[in-house]
Write a structure and sequence with these properties.
This protein is α+β, with helices and mostly antiparallel strands and about 475 residues long. The protein has four domains: about 5-120, no CATH class; about 125-220, 2-Layer Sandwich (Beta-Lactamase), CATH 3.30.450; about 225-250; about 250-480, 4-Layer Sandwich (Phosphatase 2c, domain 1), CATH 3.60.40. It contains ten helices and 18 strands. The chain has helices at about 5-30, 40-45, 50-70, 80-120, 140-145, 220-250, 305-325, 330-340, 430-445, 450-460; strands spanning about 125, 135, 180-185, 190-195, 195-205, 210-220, 265-270, 280-285, 295-305, 350-360, 365-370, 375-380, 385, 390-395, 400, 405-410, 415-420, 470-480. The strands form four sheets. Strands 1, 2, 3, 4, 5 and 6 form a six-stranded antiparallel β-sheet that branches. A hairpin with a 5-residue loop joins β10 and β11. α1 runs antiparallel to α2, α1 runs parallel beside α3 and α3 (about 50-70) runs antiparallel to α4 (about 80-120). It starts with a helix and ends with a strand. About 35% of the residues are buried.
């Protein structure tokens, strides 16, 4: 619906030229017919104010008045004056049509501009040289609901600088900045929206009428994304650093094993509770002075680097006692006794299970001692199996150490399987888990060793259905000397 003021103005635009035509017609009849060409002038002038239809109506009226004078007057020049009125009327109608098309195009462009501005989610606004709001789109209403045309905008923003202090003014948001167009560096600046501070960015550019066009943007999502990215990078950096420490410490699955001539091994470890190598599982392979190989599988209780540290303490202590001449059957017990009160923690020392194996790489003869650890499995090349059970208590328990030493012999193509309890306690019971481990390693016994430990462990724990704790599995074979 059009405003009443606009209807009233258009009424006078029609009435005024019609009254002038009537007055000129009366004047020409009463005073002199030389006023007849002025009828065309009135029609031409009306083309500047009213539409083509009204101009055509006024032109028809002017021509009818002129025709009336031609019909009633005997003046010779009346025909020429009539032609002048007709030509002027035709020109006026043509000009009115052209002007109407241009006005409609301008009006259409205005509607398009308004539609574009309303579709922009950012606040687009025009400020005059005094910081007063001239015009704004719907985005401004969302960010600054109290904004009113003709009023200063900056006091309504609650504008806060990056250091947390209120903005004193003289910035693009109050129309007084002399900077050129482009995005303004506003890192950390905020405005108050609904009682909370919202991070913003804005661009500016000078308008033709010396005003300033500002695009004000809520960058909360961008700031949040940047913070999330920073947190992820920090987590990745910490994870990389932690993985480097684990590799340095020799956690299973994080680095290459120490090789002993005549011996090949492959190991794989799954993480506990979703953390990379978070438990205290450790496989330590070293050469003894007499050329035999010492294999130690340690499973220290707890999580994280502390448990891996405990596993290395157990391994070092076992090696030390074996190097000092302790028999394999007494190695675990002596290591446990030596570690009681030897570290900075009160109590009986680290709690861990241990499986120790001494293997003669030339003859294949092996000896096994255990302290609370699940028994190693010897898988023969022909598919036969042998559990190497040597009963004993875990470290941290009364009477820790192996109660016996079991012996056997490895032949060409045989595979020694060492593992922690996490590899077999994911089944309904331990017996079932041990049976699955045996059937899996027997089925894979003829495959190359590289990568085989991972395949075997994933087969024992299908679909990642294993326990929350860490699980480690190692495969050892004798290889011909180079």
């Amino acid at each position: 619906m059009e405003p009443s003021g606009l209807r009233e103005r258009r009424t006078w635009e029609v009435v005024l030229p019609a009254v002038l035509l009537a007055l000129i017609g009366v004047g020409a009849w009463r005073v002199t017919n030389q006023l007849i060409p002025s009828l065309g002038v009135i029609v031409v002038g009306s083309a500047l104010f009213v539409g083509p239809r009204i101009v055509a109506g006024l032109a028809a009226g002017a021509i009818l008045i002129a025709l009336a004078f031609v019909a009633t007057s005997g003046v010779a020049e009346m025909g020429v004056r009539l032609v002048n009125v007709v030509l002027a009327s035709a020109f006026a109608v043509t000009a009115a049509v052209v002007l109407d098309r241009r006005f409609r195009r301008i009006e259409s462009m205005g509607h398009t501009e308004a539609a574009i501005l309303s579709a922009i989610p950012d606040a687009v606004l025009l400020l005059d040289g005094h910081g007063r709001l001239v015009r704004g789109n719907a985005g401004l209403s969302r960010l600054v609901p109290a904004a009113t045309p003709g009023q200063p905008l900056h006091p309504l923003l609650g504008h806060v600088l990056a250091d947390g202090s209120p903005c004193p003014g003289d910035c693009p948001l109050d129309g007084r900045s002399g900077r050129g167009p482009g995005e303004v560096a506003v890192d950390g600046e905020r405005i108050t929206v609904g009682g909370r501070l919202v991070p913003v960015a804005y661009t500016q550019g000078r308008a033709v009428d010396e005003g300033i066009v500002v695009v004000l943007r809520d960058v909360s999502a961008r700031v949040t994304a940047e913070e999330d990215r920073r947190v992820l990078l920090e987590e990745a950096a910490r994870g990389t650093e932690r993985l480097a420490v684990l590799r340095t410490l020799g956690a299973p699955g994080t680095g290459e094993l120490v090789t002993v001539p005549g011996l090949a091994a492959d190991v794989w470890s799954t993480p506990g509770d979703g953390a990379e190598a978070s438990g205290g599982d450790l496989l330590d392979i070293s050469a003894l002075p007499d050329g035999r190989a010492l294999l130690l599988m340690v499973d220290a209780s707890g999580d994280g680097l502390a448990s891996l540290r405990d596993a290395w303490k157990v391994s070092y202590m076992c090696r030390a006692h074996l190097a000092a001449g302790a028999p394999l059957g007494e190695m675990i017990a002596r290591a446990g006794q030596a570690m009681v009160g030897a570290d900075d923690r009160p109590g009986p020392g680290p709690a861990a299970t241990v499986a120790g194996v001494i293997l003669d790489v030339e003859t294949g003869h092996l000896q096994v001692a255990m302290g609370g650890h699940p028994p190693p499995l010897l898988v023969r090349a022909n598919g036969g199996t042998e559990w190497l059970e040597a009963p004993g208590q875990a470290l941290g328990e009364p009477g820790a150490g192996s109660q016996a030493v079991v012996s056997s012999t490895m032949g060409s193509g045989d595979t020694l399987v060492l593992y922690t309890d996490g590899a077999v306690d994911g089944a309904a019971d331990v017996i079932e888990g041990l049976g699955l481990l045996r059937s899996t390693t027997v089925a894979l016994r003829t495959l190359p060793l590289t990568g085989l430990a991972r395949r075997a462990l994933e087969s024992v724990q299908p679909g990642g259905s294993g326990p929350a704790g860490q699980a480690t599995l190692a495969l050892v074979r004798l290889v011909p000397a180079a």
